[in-house]
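Quick start: read one record
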Amino acid sequence: MKPATIIGMVLILLGIVGFATGGFSFTHRHKDVDAGPIQISHDKKETVPISPILSTVALVAGVGLVAVGAKSR
């Protein structure tokens, strides 16, 4: 397989995942008080949205790269 085809498939996969999930979230643990053996903390959940425009661009670019990789054989 040519590198363009592999990169194209990865971009197609990322575009589909971007449409399916709409973003990803992760959790931070913040320490509020750290006084010896006593610790008070809280978890903060943050979400990073993935724009549908970005997913579309990745999908179209992936299809283009796969087509170029297949055509150059």
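The first helix runs from residue 3 to 21.
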